[in-house]
Amino acid sequence: MNFVFADLETSGANTSFDCVLEACFILTNDKLQELDRIHVKNRLEEGLVPNLGALNVTGFDVNWLKQNPSPYQSNQILEKKLLSWGPVIFLGYNSQLFDWVFLSKTFFRYLKPPYFLNTKGNKIGDVLPVIRAAKLVDNSVIETPLTEKGNPSFKLSDLMKHQNAHGAVPDTEAVKTLSEIIVKNPKTKPVWDSSLMTLSRQECGDLLTKDKVVTHTEWFYGRLRMYVTKFLFSHPVYVAWATTWDLQHSPEDYIKMDYKDLKIALSKAPKVLRTIKTNRSPVLLNPSYGLKTDPYKIISPDEIQKRIQILDNSPEFLERINSILIDNHEEKASKPDKENLQPEETLYSGGFASQTDSTIMEKFHTVDWKERVLLIEKFSDDRYSFFAKRLIYQEAPDVLPQSFKKEIMKNIANRLFSTSKQQWTTIPEFYRSIDDMRNKHEKDEKIMNKLEEYNNFVSEIEKKYEAA
To answer: Which of 244, 286, 381, 389 has the most neighbouring CB atoms within 10 Å?
Structure first.
């Protein structure tokens, strides 16, 4: 199966409200030889203010933010290209938590199937957990500089030390090169192969059901860890999670506990239950890897096997654990709901589009902008009506009826001029960031000039919407 390596540079870190400013996708065969690529550059989406921190990382100037094609226009080109390559395996760096989420929400806002990257035979993965696991297997696979806290740094720019880091093209090429390093090393090639076996929730679930015991690699608190775990069952509420037992702990003492004591014990550290998120492409290795490490290597193979058999032969105990997980979920669910979500934040909570709305979306992208106006009120879901109005406002505002235009401009103005802390970047927040940067770099003429350009750019946005 072919691979597609990808990287996004965005206007900020919020996956619901920011937009893609640059993207690169490189198609390779299964030997990682390049076959094709696409590179798109976008201006800032109308109605947004960029995050100054993101601009400092990417270095995009005001001309970039103003003069490139719109993100929606590039999205149309990008989607067509990616469809022509499929089915493929999409790989990025920290992509499970950012790039793939960002793209899904972008497609959602642009009235496209949001899960395009992992449907129609496509799969999504992430090279970051693979290189972390590879580092556990062979410490010499790549040099990892240390952070201030003395932990290994897995920032792509630290690992690859490539020029123009935080540009979509060099970063995508760096991810591809990093993958080649893993594949070419005979000690870490099995890690790469294992990672390709858990790219979908179904594949991961099948592997756990078949193998039962695996080495699960995890990263938290700045450290890499291996856990040898026994699969128990799929989580009773979160179906994309697998509940496993950490075999460094004997289940014997826990089986004797009553329901109340067991519930308390399961909540305490060290955790005996470990969750594997099967929809996040976890790296699951043969148990032999983890059994060579502390604390498992001091436990005899016979004792490990005994613990596995106890869990296999204790259905009532597993049922109690299952019930406790349900109770924990219901207790959390009974807490007061958060504030009402904005439409852009409802990809997961709002459910799938109806067949009727999906059909209208498909038509929306095939007709001219005047005809798209007629489709706005045909959506049964208000989210899609809102997205349609906003897209038309961004791409062809002259065809939008005045009432809709005022509605969208008012929505944008309310967001941009908010004085409260928001998920998106507000104008007051941007100006505060500019002032902070000026105070830090007042003697650097080059930086001060760039900050002035950014300030003037946002000032133009402010003037456009202050009377809305």
So the answer is: 244
Whats the size of the chain, residue-wise? 468
Contacts of residue 121, defined as CB under 8 A and 6 or more positions apart, other chains included, come to 86, 87
Q: Which two tokens stand for residue 232?
A: 């128990």
Residue that the structure tokens 């009826």 belong to: 401
Which run of H or E residues covers position 225? strand 223-234
Long-range CB pairs of 195-199, under 8 A, 24+ apart, other chains included: 195/125, 195/129, 195/130, 195/133, 195/281, 195/283, 196/89, 196/125, 197/284, 198/278, 198/281, 198/282, 198/283, 198/284, 199/89, 199/123, 199/124, 199/125, 199/281
- Cβ atoms of 460 and 46 closer than 8 Å: no
Can you tell me the distance from the alpha carbon of 20 to that of 71, in angstroms, rounded to the nearest whole number?
6
Mutual angle of helices 127-137 and 168-184, in 10-degree steps? 40
* Cβ pair 9, 166 in contact under 8 A: yes
pTM over 0.85: yes
Q: What is the pLDDT of residues 177-222, one digit of tens each?
A: 999 999 999 999 999 999 999 999 999 999 999 999 999 998 887 7
Cα separation of 287 and 307, whole Å?
14
Facing residues of 89 across strands? 3, 123
3 state DSSP class of 7: strand
Cβ within 8 Å of residue 375, ≥6 positions away: 360, 363, 364, 367, 388
Distance CA 88, CA 121 (A): 7
Cα Rg for the chain, rounded, in angstroms? 25
pLDDT at site 338:
55
